[in-house]
Amino acid sequence: MGRKNPDTQRVSPNEIKSTGVKLEDSTKISMEGEKQQSKLGRRLLLFSAPFTGHMNPMLNLATILYSKGFSITIIQAPYFPTNPAHYPHFTFKLLDDEVLEKYSKSPEIDSSVVISAMNRTCEEPFRDCLGQILRETAVAEQDPVVALIADPMWAFSGSVAASFNLPKIMLRTGNMSAFLVYCSLTLLNEKGYFPPQDTTLEEKIPEFPPLKVKDLPSESDRHILQAIVEGTTTSQGVICNTFEELEDYAIAKLQQTLTIPIFPLGPLHKHPANSVVNIGSQDQTSIAWLNTQAPKSVLYVSFGSIAGMNKDEFLELMWGLLDSMVPFLLVIRPKLVKGSEADDPLPEGYREMMGERGHIVKWASQLEVLSHPAVGGFLTHNGWNSTLESICEGVPMVCKPLFADQNMNARHVSENWKIGLKMERGVKRDEVTRAIRKLMLEEGAEMRSRITDLKEKATHCLEEGGSSYKSLERLTKYLLSFETFQAIKE
Ligand code: UDP
Question: Is this model's pTM higher than 0.90 or not?
């Protein structure tokens, strides 16, 4: 079983500063521990974007690289940082940034506001933090730093690392098919596909099968996507949370065009180093409820950690779900329904009509839920982590993408890998019912057989000699080829 949801470990920056999980204390303990444990005598700095879907894979990567013998320092933004107490073998550093710290006290702040603040206000704090770590590790004769591994959402991380002569590797937490599209925005623009126009939405894009124009990202994302491409292509390498057997075409195409090495290491959460269950689950009730259900009978419904939907869309989904007569485990996290102030956005009487057939929580331990024998399908927004986690457990999907790369992911799920059914925008109650019944009761067997095949490939690629196993060996050698950073001792 995979490690439990790391979101349960996230705290406010104040808690880290003022309670039992004091940053400095945990830093000291882990630094001392690492002196004995670091087999390779080399330190890596990891800098994640402060969102669950980015933090989870970065922490999984950190655990894998630690298991290979590197010392690990995690640099965190003060926006719901991960609780260091759960990772005593890593060193944690918190950026000093008042804006994000203030946002961390206001969970209602929109993620787009957080993203623009990240690149507006964190560059100097990051430069200070990096300088401090490099000096400290040299003065204290800790394992010397060899590279920064950053999320490309931090547009400035490359130039800051370069100013210290520190090599920078990117961790791409989304898939490589979407990244190939991001790298091709100029071409797509020249061909008239991007930005999507109302008149061409249904057109297929011959250069990127099976995508349609409407699956492409929106114009408002262009700036951040260009920064992601620029940051990645000017780095010294890219690690990705995918595996060759799943995305051979996109990986090969990128390998032909990029001059940097690509390291597909995924699925990161399934690597043996991440198999230790060491964190208590917040969500005891879901598993207890699933234990009472028949094998493969339950539809798990969750839309990730950030995305929101409008009230009309939410209600069509909820009624469609109820009408399907299929048992369901439903996650309604705060802020899922845009503009809804109500504690419970469900219509009056819904819970009574649902009765014992459904179970509703605010947050689920998704890895545990997906691997439960009672779960037979996943109604998902197709965030890349959720998609990959579903593949790894052999659970076919009903796709209801909401934004960003989710439309492209859903298209690959439904038309490339054929392991799910995609619902389009503006979906109505009866279509929701039809899609759910089709997956759970009618055509699910074929999709389950195809996804079981992918699940096996996801398992084998991590075993000795497998594609991701070999990729990790290659990455380890590559990281060891970098000079260690020599700071001038003050
Ligand atoms: N997740 C979870 N419980 C939930 C909802 C989400 O543990 O109730 C986890 C899920 O396992 C995944 C992450 O949150 O690892 C969400 O990442 P994803 O890329 O799917 O979507 P995002 O939140 O970035 O939109």
Answer: yes
- Cα-Cα-Cα-Cα torsion 222, 106, 133, 241, nearest 10 degrees, comes to -50
- Counting atoms of ligand 1 from 1, which one is nearest the CA of 365? 7
Q: Note whether residue 472 is domain-resident.
A: yes
Do 366 and 223 share a structural domain?
no
Same domain, 74 and 191: yes
Number of domains in the chain: 2
* 248 and 377 co-located in one domain: no
Please answer whether residues 427 and 313 qualify as being in contact, where contact means their C-beta atoms are separated by less than 8 angstroms. yes
Same domain, 266 and 398: no
Q: Which domain holds residue 61?
A: 6-271+462-480
Do the beta carbons of residue 148 and residue 161 sit within 8 Å? yes
Which tens digit of pLDDT belongs to each residue from 152-208?
999 999 999 999 999 999 999 999 999 999 999 999 999 999 988 888 888 999 999
Ligand 1: which of 277, 370, 378, 386 to mutate, judged by most atoms within 8 Å of the beta carbon?
A: 386
Pocket of ligand 1 (CB under 6 A): 5, 7, 51-53, 56, 302, 304-307, 331, 363-364, 366-367, 383-386, 389
Angle at 252 between CA 246 and CA 385, to 5 degrees: 35
Q: How far is the CA of 51 from the centre of ligand 1 (A)?
A: 10
